[in-house]
Amino acid sequence: MKHNYLRNPYSSRQVTKFSKKAMVATSQPLAAQTGLDMIKKGGNAVDAAIATAACLTVVEPTSNGIGGDAFAIVWFNNKMHGLNASGYSPQNISIKKVKDRGYKKMPKTGWIPVTVPGAPSAWAALSEKFGNLSFEEVLEPAINYAKEGYPVSPTLSKYWKRAFNKYNFILKGEEFEPWFDTFTIKGKPPESGQVWSSKDHAESLKSIAKTNSKSFYKGEIAERIINFSNEYGGFFVKDDLMSYSPQWVNPVSVKYRDYDVWELPPNGQGLVALLALNIMNGYRLNFKESVDTYHKQIEALKLAFADGKKYITEPKKIQFKIAEMLAKSYAEQRRSLITDQALEPTPGSFKDSGTVYLSTADQEGNMVSYIQSNYMGFGSGLVVPNTGITLQNRGNSFSLDQDNHNRLEPKKRPYHTIIPGFLTKDKNAVGPFGVMGGYMQPQGHLQVIMNLIDFNLNPQAALDAPRWMWLEGKKLIVEHDFPKHIINSLIRKGHNIKIAVDSGKFGRGQIIYRDNVNGTYAGGTEKRTDGHIALW
Predict the structure, then answer these.
(1) Over the stretch 117-136, which tens digit does the pLDDT of each residue have?
(2) Which residue is catalytic, options 16, 52, 355, 424?
(3) Spelled out in words, what is the top-level CATH class assigned to the domain 249-341+423-429+447-510?
C-alpha cells in the first residue's frame, strides 16, 4: 500500500499519527495513555492491551465492563495467536424454561440473557502467556481511576445519558437498583466534565488483580454473582463460573489482493467480513466514490451476513467446515447472484458437517488487536451488588426457535458480534484493525480494509470515510456526509436508503499499520468518538 499520509479527502479533527517505538490506539485518551505507560515501564504490547482494556471498563462503562466478553488476536515473536474469551449460557437454562416464563424471544435485560463473563479470564490468560509485568501492576491504573474518579468526556456523557433515559423507562424491579446506585450521581447521569468514580469497581478490580482473575470465577466475586442470581430468578450455579476458561484458537484468513486478512473463527462474526471480502476478490474496482463500488460492497455483505446469521454459533455445534465456506468456488457461487439491482439475501447451503476496541504495538514488533463488550451499551441492566460489575446480556442473540443453528441451549456460546481484525503480507505483520458496534463490525471491517488496500487511503482517512450500514432486506442507512449523488444512484438500483442523524451507529475504529521497511508505526483513530493514539 502506498498511502498519501498528507492527504485526507474526508474531514476530521484527527490526522494519521506516527511513532517509532510504540503505539496504543483506543476510544478513550486516559485508557490509551495507560497502555503506553505500561510499555514505558518495561511492559510489551500485551501488557499495554490488558492495562488499556481494564482501564476502559472504568473510563468507558457505557460500552464495556468487567462482566463482559473479550476476543484478541496477538502477534508475538512473529507468530499469531487467537483468544476467544466469550462465555456460555448457564447449564440450567433451556428454551422451554424461558418460554414458560412467558417469553417468545430472548429478552434484552434481566437475568435470562446473561452469559458467563469472559473478560477477566482474557486479561489473566494474556498476562500469563505473554506478559512482562505482573498482573497487579498492569491493573493498577484502572483500580486508581475507579477509586479516585475521572472527568467524564462529552461523547461519553452523551451515551451515558442515553442509556440512563432508556433504563429509567424500562428497568423495573429492585434487582436493577444497583445499576442506578452505581452509574448515577445523586440519581442523575454524569455531565461532561463531572467526576465519576466507583469504589466498588475499584475493589473488584483489586480482587481480580490479586488472584489472577480467580476470585471472579471461584472466589468472592463468584459467590456474589451466584447469590444475586439465586435471589432474582437467574439460572446460574457455581459450576457455570468454576468450569469456565477462555479458549486459545487459530485465527482464520482469506487472501485479499496481496494481503491476508485475519479474523477469529466462530462463534464470532468475523467470518462475515471474510466471506464478503472473498466475494469482492472477484472484482477490480478503480474508484471508491462510484455507485458500482458501493453497490457491489453492499450486495457482497448482504450475502455474507445471510450465511453468517444462519450458520455461526457455538463452535462445537457448527454444521459446516470453515474451509468450505471460505473456498474460492463458494465465493464464485455467491458472487454470481449479484446483479445491477439490490437483492433480498438468502443463505447458501452446505452439507451437514454499545463495545470497545483497542490496538497496541511495541518496539519489538509485537501487536495486539483486542475487543471487549457488555453488548447493547451497559448490557443486562444488572449490576452485582457491592461490586460495580455490570453483567452482559450477550444471550439476547440466542434464538428460541428449535430449528435455528443459534438456538438457546445449556452451556452454549451464542453468535457473537465483537471481532478483532489483523492484516499481514508475505507472512509479515502489517497490523491490527477493528471497528466496534454490534452488527456494524464486519461491515466496518469490509469498508476499512477496502479503503486501505483497494483505494490506498492512509489509516486515518480509511476510518474517516463516510460509512454505510446494511440493516435487513434492501434497507440500509448512510452517514450524513455520504455522497448524495451516490445515494440517488443506489436508490435507482433498488436500495432503500435513509440518512442517519447519529454517526454513533456506524461503529468506532482504530488502526495501527507497521512500515516493515522503516520499522515505524502509522495509526488512525475514530473521529466518531473520543478516539486517541498514545505515541512513543
Answers:
(1) 999 999 999 999 999 999 99
(2) 355
(3) mainly alpha
